[in-house]
Amino acid sequence: MNTITNFLKSTFLILALVLTTSQAFATQNPSIEEITSFVIQSEATTVELTWKMAEGFEGKVLVQRAGIDMQFETIRELDHTQINQFVDEQPQAGVTFYRLAIQHSDGSITYQKASVLSR
Q1: Which has fewest Cβ within 10 Å: 4, 13, 38, 111?
Q2: Which of 113, 117, 115 lies closest to 23 in space, CA to CA?
Q3: Using an 8 Å Cβ cutoff, are 63 and 53 in contact?
Q4: What is the phi/psi pair of residue 4, to 5°?
């Protein structure tokens, strides 16, 4: 039974990774110049997200999280002048997706492709 459960978990994670690389979860992608790096690091009880924005970027960064249902919610909103780091102190158990949404000064929003984390 344990082997079947592990197989199903592995299969699901592979499927989730494949799906997050498709355009299905991001209506638009920020240009390569806006987000230069995005790193997710799982700690014992928290998840740390860090990113770098291109110099001269203006707008807001929305940190978003979703569970397996892929219903993203904004968990933090940051001005471009603030530090490019967020610590999720209440991460969800199991599979969690994180992404950055960029709200431009004209009000338009672009979405980064989601990254998956399994805890």
Answers
A1: 4
A2: 113
A3: no
A4: -65, -45
The predicted model scores a pTM of 0.71
Q: Hey, what are 61's tokens?
A: 């960064």
- Pair 73, 55: CB distance under 8 Å: no
The rounded distance, in Å, linking the Cα atoms of 92 and 97 is 10
- 45, amino acid identity: T
Fold (topology level) of 2-118: Immunoglobulin-like (2.60.40)
Cα distance between residue 113 and residue 97, in whole Å: 10
The token pair at 30 is 């920020």
Q: Are 34 and 102 in contact (CB under 8 A)?
A: yes
Q: How many CB atoms lie within 10 A of CB 91?
A: 19
Do residues 41 and 47 lie in contact, with contact meaning Cβ atoms separated by under 8 Å? yes
CA end-to-end distance (rounded Å), the chain: 21
CA torsion sign, 38 to 65 to 102 to 12? positive
With tokens 């399994």, the residue in question is: 118
